[in-house]
Specification:
Blueprint (H helix, E strand, L loop, with lengths): L1 E8 L3 H12 L1 H8 L1 E9 L3 E4 L12 H4 L1 E2 L2 H11 L4 E5 L10 H6 L2 E5 L9 H14 L3 E2 L11 H9 L4 E7 L2 H12 L4 H10 L8 H4 L2 H13 L9 E3 L13 H6 L4 H10 L5 E10 L4 E10 L11 E8 L7 E6 L3 H17 L3
Parallel strand pairs: 1-2, 1-5, 5-6, 6-7, 9-11
Antiparallel strand pairs: 2-3, 3-4, 8-10, 8-12, 10-11, 12-13
The chain binds NADPH dihydro-nicotinamide-adenine-dinucleotide phosphate and the ligand N[C@@H](CC=O)C(=O)O.
Length: 357
């Protein structure tokens, strides 16, 4: 039996769903794959629950009362003192700061799995440094859920690229929340702000929905895919159309934005008026690997087109390559939500486990 020690950072919607899925599959994992998953840490931004012998699946009963305030140094000491074999840190936070600590985690003996997209969209210097440190420490970094949530996008693209297949273009709907929002908003007689709130409750938006509405989330995904193709790009190289009106942009705090979210209704009403009955709104990402251009923008699509037909929180990725020249390789399915994302992270745990002793 192979024991994998898991440290979970970010027990929010995705993180707690993952722990639920792991707990349900505990026996199945032991029997079918010979893997014993031992949860040795659960930490949110201020409190951490630590137990080197394994945290019970009922971890969330009184998490705040059982967990202790911590500093990042406490975590590094905990990892070093216990010398956990097959230690994997999972980042299901949406933190901009936590990913900057990945190198320290790797140096403290941990592999990394991330749903959080930030580490792969910081500067190229950080991107390269992280990979250098991973190699030096013989550690893995897997992040399939960075693009398309549970859909197999990152690995498919990497395999095509590494096998020498020339990927020329990727086009599609890369945002589950914007997909859901525009599907609902195009069909229903609801206000935009109401549909946005629904998307948040269903776990499709980022904790700060402005990351989705500003196009930054799609911009990040484009950059992650571009870097998989070894294109030397920064987030500032992505041409991004923001859907947030000026008065809610910039210095507005998240709390203030959430209070004033109804102000979006008029703004989005004009997008809706501007399209015909047989069209739908789609926020698309386009990566041209030949010219190196990356773009995220709102377009009108005929309802009958491939992009027009997607439903719910679906993503669709059309990948054009030398072999898939005229008819692209297409990957479609739910592109957001705690269940599918947690299942994708679970898949990453299995991938890492297969490579460890
Ligand atoms: N929802 C989806 O469909 C998808 C999400 N993702 C990614 O998954 C991540 C999680 O999303 P979601 O579950 O919706 O977010 P939530 O806001 O529900 O959860 C985030 C969790 O992270 C914790 N956290 C914040 N900062 C830190 C920190 N520095 N250290 C440890 N924990 C911290 C928060 O705790 P606290 O209460 O203390 O702030 C909270 O428990 C995001 O990065 C998102 O982009 C990726 C693909 C799809
Ligand atoms: N907020 C994201 C979640 C997955 O990455 C999205 O809407 O696609």
């Amino acid at each position: 039996m192979k024991t994998i020690h898991l440290a979970l950072f970010g027990p929010g919607k995705v993180g707690s769903k993952l722990l639920e899925q792991l707990s349900i599959s505990e026996e199945h994992l032991k029997k079918s794959s010979g893997i014993n998953v031992k949860l040795i840490l659960v930490a949110d931004s201020s409190h951490a629950l630590l137990n080197p012998k394994g945290i019970k699946s009922s971890w969330n009963n009184g998490f705040k009362s059982g967990a202790k305030r911590y500093s990042f140094n406490d975590i590094k000491d905990y990892f070093r003192e216990n010398e956990f074999k097959n230690l994997v840190s999972i980042d299901t936070t949406a933190s901009e700061d936590f990913p900057q600590k990945y190198i320290a985690l790797v140096n403290a003996g941990s592999h990394i799995i991330a749903a959080n997209k930030v580490a792969n969209t910081l500067s190229s210097e950080f991107y390269k440094e992280l990979r250098k440190e991973l190699k030096r420490n013989n550690k893995k970094f897997i992040y399939e859920t960075n693009v398309g949530a549970g859909l197999p996008i990152v690995e498919t693209l990497r395999n095509l690229h590494l096998s020498g297949e020339k990927v020329t273009r990727i086009r599609g709907v890369f945002s589950g929340s914007l997909s859901y929002i525009f599907n609902k908003y195009s069909e229903d007689e609801k206000d935009f702000s109401e549909v946005l709130k629904e998307a948040g409750i269903l776990g499709y938006t980022e904790p700060d929905a402005r990351i989705d509405l500003s196009g930054k989330d799609v911009g990040r995904k484009l950059l992650i895919l571009a870097r998989e193709l070894e294109l030397n790009k920064e987030l500032t190289d992505v041409r991004i159309q923001s859907l947030i009106p000026k008065q809610l942009n910039g210095d507005t705090s998240l709390e203030e934005f959430n209070k004033r979210v109804e102000e979006l209704d008029l703004h989005f009403g004009s997008y809706k008026k501007d399209k015909s009955e047989d069209e739908v709104l789609r926020y698309v990402g386009e990566l041209n690997a030949v010219s190196g251009e990356l773009e995220a923008k709102l377009i009108k699509e005929p309802k009958t087109s491939v992009l027009g037909q997607i439903e719910g929180a679906d993503n669709i990725f059309e990948i054009y390559t030398e072999s898939y020249k005229d008819l692209p390789l297409v990957i479609r399915g739910a592109g957001a939500g705690a269940d599918v994302t947690a299942r994708g992270v679970f898949g990453d745990i299995l991938k890492i486990s297969e490579r460890l002793n």
